[in-house]
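Extended Data, panel c. Modelled sequence:
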Amino acid sequence: MNPSTRFKALIDRKLREHWSPEQALAIYDLLSELGEIIWRYYEIEMSDLIAERFKQNAALQRHSPTFNEVPDF
């Protein structure tokens, strides 16, 4: 399990144990506003990074064998 997966599992468990729906909505609203502010400041740079990720993922998919291409052993 990678750190991101562990973090998501921890957050999922803690959310259900400790937050009310109202608290969850307040945090969601806060994070949404924070995301909008960050986007305003870094839109161009983040767009470039997102495009680069997309290209890398597309390249990986082109070079990954499909089920039919896996060699017999």
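The longest helix spans residues 21-63. This feature is highlighted in the accompanying rendering.
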